[in-house]
């Protein structure tokens, strides 16, 4: 692999002229502190890493959306602009790795950074020419040089300051000309201050115009799958990528009337605001686009995101939004939220069925036949999740279920029995499964889901529920148990049972806060009989801490009986 050295001024000249961004790149995320630190590293001769470029041949430039680098960053409107490639008759260079650094260089040297801190501030990068270079060996996080984003060059504070607009250095090919430009302002300073200022101007000029600060490698393959793989590997050390970030690029390029990027981002946000909140990603929404557009393959492969297929999705986009929203509103009524939707893909067959049914208000229906269907859907979603039906070859499973649903009469009830058989699961929990469930621990993957099933008649709307230890967690310390003079066997028993399902319940946030670490035998006296019944609290003569094992055994029996009713 051949790496080619590059100067900062070379990069800046090419930004939005020769080098651009593919849509697979996320947006700019660095704050002013990281931009300042990048310039400080350049001035201090620290390495800033290599860059990975991709040469996209001119004949293929219309296959990928191309974006401009941000120069005037605005936290209120942070999105990259689509680059205008009309009339471009040469190959295009796209940045696969190094976007944050190159954007930072562009903002620091040619742009601005607008952000909110008590009020909106539009700032530019300055260097204090009167601050000597001060490396801090004890705290390497501190800046060696005085870089700062400021609204103006006016001095503030008591330390000597002369704020030099960093981008000014680009106006001069020779360092001496840059110093001469500042001669009049420096004339009023002491000799020591003039020397420091001229030294910093010379150093800044050298590091921007002369020093080879990094290297870049140019990938020339036109194999999109290979390029995406390179991109994922190059960025694997940073924020984890969703594959949808990559495929969204193709969609953005090939939708004709809608901006796929903004549409999918905005719709994902709107889904997550339904009910008590969800955490769906773009991956889920794009998968739904494929799944709810009949006859399209649902695998995440670039070859499946052809122009023809993406135009089918674009034509079906409003219907995708309608029925995915209907599905999420429906499960919100059942008490599902971000904490207990642990298998989001199980929602897609439900959305497909509702789409075939053709009623986007189904979640609001109170008709008897619709109510029966809603119950069947809830039950199917629960069992397919608890039995991990979508944990293996989920694409194969989803495709098979879509074919079955396509052949069913949508005017009839949800065909759960057919789907159960296809998934090879039963709509009930056997003893072994219940025994495994009873071992689920506090805030485990499926714990909130199982707890929510124990409250079938609860009103989940606009309420926030917490997992709560019935006997407070704070009481289960080995040291405390020894003080109670429990023997080793009893201590092991208590420690093995306090953090699992039999000692957990769902309380509203207000209930949980008021309960806090109150001993259970005291707190339960403040609860009415219906509360005890709703939370499956066994009827015992005493709820004292010494009776915890008896409580755990009795409540386990109640929960097991409830799970068998599902």
Walkthrough of the structure:
The chain is an alpha+beta fold and 566 residues long. It has three domains: 3-216, no CATH class; 242-427, no CATH class; 463-564, no CATH class. It is built from 23 helices and 13 strands. The strands form three sheets. The protein has a six-stranded mixed β-sheet. Strands 5, 7, 8, 9 and 10 form a five-stranded mixed β-sheet that branches. Strands 12-13 form a two-stranded antiparallel ribbon. Strand 7 and strand 8 (119-128) form a beta hairpin. The two termini are 60 Å apart.
* Class from helix and strand fractions: alpha+beta
Largest sheet strand order? 1-11-3-6-2-4
Give unreliable regions as ranges. none
Largest sheet: 6 strands, mixed
CA-atom Rg in angstroms: 31 Å
The level of helicity is 40-55%
Q: Please report which band the strand proportion falls in: under 5%, 5-15%, 15-25%, 25-35%, 35-45% or over 45%.
A: 5-15%
Q: How far apart lie the N and C ends?
A: 60 Å
Average pLDDT reading: 89
Number of strands: 13
What is the approximate shape? globular
Helical segment tally?
23
Tally the structural domains: 3
């Amino acid at each position: 692999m051949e790496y080619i050295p590059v100067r900062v001024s070379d990069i800046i000249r090419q930004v939005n002229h020769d080098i651009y961004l593919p849509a697979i790149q996320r947006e700019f995320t660095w704050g002013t502190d990281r931009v300042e630190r990048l310039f400080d590293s350049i001035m201090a001769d620290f390495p800033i890493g290599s860059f990975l470029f991709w040469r996209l041949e001119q004949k293929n430039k219309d296959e990928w959306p191309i974006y401009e680098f941000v120069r005037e960053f605005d936290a209120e409107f942070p999105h990259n602009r689509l680059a205008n490639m009309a009339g471009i008759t040469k190959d295009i260079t796209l940045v696969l790795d190094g976007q944050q650094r190159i954007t930072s260089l562009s903002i620091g040297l040619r742009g601005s950074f607008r952000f909110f801190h008590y009020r909106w501030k539009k700032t530019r990068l300055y260097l204090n020419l009167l601050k000597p270079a001060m490396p801090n060996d004890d705290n390497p996080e501190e800046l060696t040089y005085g870089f700062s984003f400021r609204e103006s060059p006016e001095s503030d504070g008591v330390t000597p300051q002369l704020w030099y607009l960093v981008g000014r250095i680009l106006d001069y090919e020779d360092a001496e000309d840059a110093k001469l430009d500042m001669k009049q302002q420096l004339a009023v300073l002491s000799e020591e201050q003039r020397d420091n200022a001229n030294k910093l101007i010379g150093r800044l000029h050298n590091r921007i115009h002369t020093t080879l600060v990094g290297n870049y490698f140019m990938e020339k393959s036109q194999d999109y799958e290979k390029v995406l793989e390179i991109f994922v590997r190059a960025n694997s050390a940073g924020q984890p990528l969703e594959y949808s970030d990559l495929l969204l690029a193709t969609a953005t390029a090939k939708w004709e009337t809608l901006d796929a990027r903004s549409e999918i981002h905005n719709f994902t946000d709107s889904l997550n605001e339904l009910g008590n909140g969800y955490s769906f990603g773009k991956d889920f929404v794009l998968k739904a686009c494929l799944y709810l557009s009949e006859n399209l393959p649902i695998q995440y492969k670039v070859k499946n995101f052809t122009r023809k297929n993406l135009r089918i999705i674009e034509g079906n986009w409003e219907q995708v939004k309608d029925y995915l929203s209907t599905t999420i509103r429906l499960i919100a009524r059942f008490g599902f939220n971000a904490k207990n939707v642990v298998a989001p893909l199980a929602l897609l067959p439900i959305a497909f069925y509702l789409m075939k049914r053709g009623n986007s208000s189904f979640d609001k229906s109170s008709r008897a036949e619709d109510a029966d269907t809603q119950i069947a859907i809830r039950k199917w979603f629960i069992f397919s999740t608890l039995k991990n039906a979508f944990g293996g070859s989920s694409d194969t499973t989803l495709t098979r279920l879509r074919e079955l649903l396509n052949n069913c009469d949508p005017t009839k009830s949800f065909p759960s029995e057919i789907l159960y058989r296809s998934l090879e699961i039963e709509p009930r929990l056997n003893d072994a499964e219940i025994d495994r469930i009873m071992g689920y621990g506090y805030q485990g993957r499926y714990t909130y889901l199982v707890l929510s099933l124990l409250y079938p008649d609860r009103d989940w709307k606009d309420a926030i529920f917490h997992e709560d230890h019935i006997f407070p967690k704070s009481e289960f310390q080995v040291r405390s148990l020894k003080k109670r003079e429990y023997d080793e066997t009893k201590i092991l028993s208590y420690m093995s049972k306090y953090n699992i399902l039999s000692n957990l319940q769902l309380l509203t946030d207000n209930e949980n806060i008021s309960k806090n670490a109150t001993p259970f035998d005291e707190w339960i006296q403040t609860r009415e009989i219906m509360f005890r019944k709703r939370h499956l609290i066994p009827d015992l003569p005493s709820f004292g801490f010494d009776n915890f094992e008896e409580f755990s055994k009795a409540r386990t029996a109640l929960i097991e009986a409830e799970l068998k009713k599902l």
